[in-house]
Specification:
With 666 residues, the protein is of the alpha+beta class. Among the domains are: 297 residues, Rossmann fold; 59 residues, no CATH class; 61 residues. Helix content is 17%, strand content 33%. The strands form eight sheets. Strands 29-30-32-31-33-34-35-36 form an eight-stranded mixed β-sheet, sandwiched between helices. The relative contact order is 0.14. The N terminus is likely disordered.
Length: 666
């Protein structure tokens, strides 16, 4: 069972990284004098090749077949990640796909003898679904429709012949539900979207029993006891309130929901939809809450049909187990790998064989297979054996106060071997003066957040001698409703101030060199980089924007058609082009290009459906018209995020040279 929702303006990156060199008629003026290069490494670690931080893993994304006899995984072929399979008791592997144009980024088992996978074309995000047998053969395309986006709504684990999918085939703005016959390829529409449904929900028997509808700013949860009945409305809330169904209980009678109704932090409840009264808390049973952060993810056992725990994120991901068996498994695995985080990623239907990953802030991760009966442990793959952990930098959770008193949390990565100063000190006088070049990286979304763990960009920049600051500014998710709402209509204002305040906080403590700070980000983070260059040009030595909006009017005017039902929510969160015209002009960097006097690097995917290429075209033209330095990089075969390995290499190679020139990185 799954619940699919089209989330509001999800500008977040799948940040692998960006781009492509585009010919231009004339070169920009010469760059201003660069700061002196660092004459020697800050610490005795080798300069690791850029490609090692951003290359495809040798093997990744392991998944075990339901019968526990086979492993599927991704592995490069022709420089593209493709699906492979092998028997658990054999090392012989078979390649099932032959994608040479684009990585396959998602797949799942359909029974124990077939694999389903999804793929788009050139980053257009119109994902198609394919099916292939584990013995090989030509994959069968199940949704061969150009310009159509497809989701897997329910893989129907107990039904070997069918799955439920949702597509915007009839109307690009909304998604209808179809039953797909995997043998014949026949698609049977089982639910028509009246035009306002933004998500569908099935129970554990694959019956379509829930839906979300919107009028633009309010959303309603719809429910029916059987598929023969019409949907009825259970409750209506503002989009600012969270009441998101997660799954049915295993008897299909109650629903688990993540809710912040009448509270600030989202918690998990269960309720009986046949006896539910929104204004009566007695009809909702609290499962788990946390006083500081939102909780919204469950762990469950399909075999025993119980919820076994929850996952939430404070500075790091944390678990709370309700189930003795699941808690014991976690304890067993963690005892084998002290000092590492352990995440169970898959189990077979008998829950005997377990795939798990170990990782840390200095390790991209290692996959293992564990047999709970025999206690046999097999290492499947180290995702980046070419990156020695002892040469990586620790990521430190940090917090500081914004200028208006909000607690802002984030992460600081210093070059390997650099002693962590006392960040609680009021001023730099109580600390040794590090004066490191700094790169601040605002995250995408903006409704998202950064988390603790291995970050290729942070490690790459730290290896080059930079401090890296990642900021969960106001408007980030995970810290409660009030903190999220504090970011409404604050693009370029309060949200940007939080980033600025973090940079100055590190400068005041002697960590960051006041003359060698840069701002870099993707998607919303790319906007933030442009805003930093336009609105606080004296703070930064240079800026890098990757698929970042520059003109909020054209951004809102060019959203993908399937976000159209949510347009009014976007206006509430960003600004209304008519009512808030002055605000959007004030915070759109393209209208302030004359203020950008620092070097700028802009990267863009030509097929981006979320932030159109015109967003980057505009700011590049405006900055060049003002006679300023800008480097423009475009990849014709990418969209909102660069997935092909050679494109990632191109981007980071250009970024490395750009930061070496303007920040003095080693």
């Amino acid at each position: 069972m799954q619940y699919a929702v089209l989330f509001f303006l999800s500008l977040s990156l799948l940040l692998s990284a960006p781009f492509a060199l585009k010919a231009r008629a004339s070169e920009p003026p010469a760059a201003p004098a660069s700061p002196p290069l660092i004459s020697a490494p800050l610490i005795p670690v080798p300069l690791i090749p850029m490609e090692d931080f951003f290359r495809n893993p040798e093997v990744a994304s392991f998944s075990i077949s339901p019968d526990g006899k086979k492993l599927a995984f991704l592995k490069p072929w022709e420089r593209r990640l493709n699906v492979y399979v092998r028997d658990i008791d054999s090392s012989g592997e078979r390649r099932l796909t032959s994608s040479a144009e684009r990585d396959i980024t998602g797949f799942f088992w359909k029974g124990s003898d077939r694999i389903a996978f999804v793929q788009d074309k050139g980053g257009d995000e119109n994902f198609h679904i394919f099916l292939v047998g584990v013995e090989g053969g030509e994959p069968k395309e199940l949704t061969p429709f150009d310009g159509v986006k497809t989701y897997v709504l329910d893989d129907l684990e107990e039904d070997p012949r069918h799955m439920l999918i949702s597509m915007n085939k009839n109307n690009p703005e909304v998604f209808d539900v179809y039953r797909c016959d995997l043998e014949t390829g026949e698609l049977t529409q089982i639910a028509e979207n009246p035009g306002n449904i933004t998500g569908w929900m099935t129970d554990h028997d694959g019956r379509l029993r829930g839906a979300y509808e919107t009028d633009g700013v309010n959303q309603s949860l719809l429910y029916r006891a059987t598929e023969k009945e019409p949907f009825r409305k259970l409750l209506t809330t503002s989009f600012k309130d969270d009441f998101s169904p997660i799954m049915f209980t295993y008897d299909n009678k109650r629903i688990y929901v993540a809710s912040n109704l009448s509270r600030d932090k989202t918690a998990i409840y269960t309720f009986d939809p046949d006896d539910f009264r929104p204004d009566d808390r007695k009809t909702q049973k609290l499962v788990y809450e946390h006083p500081v952060v939102d909780v919204g993810r469950l762990i469950s056992s399909k075999k025993r049909k119980v919820v076994t725990g929850v996952v939430y994120t404070t500075d790091k991901s944390r678990y709370k187990f309700f189930d003795e068996d699941r808690a014991k498994l976690q304890q067993t695995l963690e005892a084998k790998f002290p000092g590492y985080d352990v995440a169970v990623t898959d189990m077979d239907d008998d829950e005997r064989r377990v795939i798990f990953a170990t990782f840390s802030d200095r390790s991209r991760g290692t996959y293992y297979l564990y047999d709970r009966e025999t206690e046999k442990l097999e290492m499947l793959a180290n995702l980046a054996p070419w990156l020695p952990e002892e040469q990586m930098a620790p990521m430190t959770p940090i917090e500081y106060k914004s200028r208006d008193g909000l607690i802002i949390r984030g992460y600081l990565t210093l070059p390997p071997g650099t002693p962590l100063p006392d960040l609680n000190a009021e001023r730099e006088s109580s600390n040794p003066k590090l004066d490191l070049p700094l790169v601040v990286i605002p995250h995408g979304g903006p409704s998202g957040r950064d988390t603790w763990g291995f970050d290729s960009e942070a490690q790459f920049l730290a290896n080059r001698g930079a401090a890296v600051l990642q900021v969960n500014f106001r408007g980030s998710t995970g810290y409660g409703k009030s903190f999220w709402e504090a970011g409404f209509k604050q693009w370029g204002r309060g949200m940007q101030n939080d980033v600025t305040d973090g940079v100055k906080w590190l400068m005041d403590r002697g960590v960051a060199d006041r003359k060698r700070a840069a701002i870099y980000g993707g998607s919303y983070g790319g906007y933030s980089a442009l805003a930093g260059a336009a609105f606080t040009p004296d703070l930064y030595a240079c800026a890098v924007s990757y698929v970042g909006p520059s003109n909020l009017f054209t951004l809102l005017d060019s959203i993908p058609p399937y976000w159209e039902p949510l347009r009014d929510m976007e206006y509430e969160m960003i600004g209304d082009p008519v009512k808030d015209k002055a605000l959007l002009e004030e915070v759109s960097p393209v209208f302030h290009a004359d203020k950008i006097r620092i070097p700028l690097l802009v990267a863009q995917g030509a097929n981006d459906p979320r932030v159109k290429k015109a967003e980057s075209d505009q700011i590049v033209e405006a900055v060049r018209k003002a006679g300023k330095d800008v480097v423009y990089l475009v990849k014709e075969n990418e969209g909102h995020g660069f997935y092909n390995e050679e494109n990632r290499f191109d981007f980071y190679r250009a970024m490395e040279e750009f930061f070496r020139k303007h920040l003095g990185l080693r």
